[in-house]
């Protein structure tokens, strides 16, 4: 239980109690970490505040990663509250729902740029701010999906954004290693969340995984949370630049 005692982490990307970021927050809390949360917009504020309270966390405010001033404000609030930071979780992605269906080739320039900005560049933008606060080293974690590596139905431009995100994990790891800041990603199997419900045929993908993963089931929020606790704690102190599959083994099959 004391694995993460004394560690302070910022969790970005909680939308509700089914969010992967929430699964990670619960695991970190169970291991004794102190948590801060951002939310995107007033609608989510009402959702995030009671959840933060549940894990004795603080809410540092609104952060929309497509508005850099709000990223700055969030990190300034963290600095004001804590002075330094040990870990950050980036569980943020976006693409127009009508382009998470059908063919990749039909992607518009506008949605391509927006998907890349919110789902990929935002992790780098966050790393820039987090680096300054990680004065005792640190751990940064993002969330990716197998659609980065292989074609997956309906994942489309998000697959490209995740491929770029995974590459950015390697480049950020190299940039920040000398400061003992580690950068990793969890490639999670499909989980029914708000974001996932925007992907065409998602229920079919869940069923497909249930029949075809080595473990013959899907993964849970708690399982992703437990693996995240490894990356965000000192247990993984020798690990950086890693894309770690928490997918019931699907990556050896598909
Ligand atoms: O099957 C899944 N659910 C998987 C998700 C499998 C593998 C990876 N992932 C990834 C997602 O791509 C994402 O990077 O996990 C991450 C977290 O996603 P989630 O937990 O599946 O989805 P959700 O609970 O909806 O949280 C994502 C949140 C947004 O929620 P909505 O649904 O309202 O878009 O990302 C946040 C927002 O809270 N978000 C933003 N935050 C700041 N600025 C922005 C933005 N511009 N856009 C979205």
Task: Describe the model.
By secondary structure, this protein is an alpha/beta fold. The chain is built from 7 helices and 7 strands, in the order E-H-E-H-E-H-E-H-E-H-E-H-H-E. A 7-stranded parallel sheet has the order 3-2-1-4-5-6-7, with helices on both faces. The protein is globular and about 45 Å long. 48% of the residues are buried. The model has no long low-confidence stretch (mean pLDDT 97).
Q: What's the structural blueprint in terms of helices and strands?
A:
Elements lengths: L7 E5 L7 H11 L3 E6 L1 H14 L3 E5 L5 H15 L4 E4 L18 H25 L4 E7 L11 H21 L4 E8 L13 H11 L8 H12 L10 E4 L8
Parallel strand pairs: 1-2, 1-4, 2-3, 4-5, 5-6, 6-7
Bound molecules: ligand 0WD.
User: Mind summarizing the main beta sheet?
Assistant: 7 strands, parallel
The count of helical stretches stands at 7
Find the count of extended strands (DSSP E, 2+ residues).
Answer: 7
* Hetero compounds: ligand 0WD
What is the general shape?
A: globular
Helix content: 40-55%
Global mean pLDDT: 97
SSE pattern: EHEHEHEHEHEHHE
- Helical/strand content category: alpha/beta
Main-sheet strand order equals 3-2-1-4-5-6-7
Tell me the fraction of residues in β-strands, as a range.
15-25%
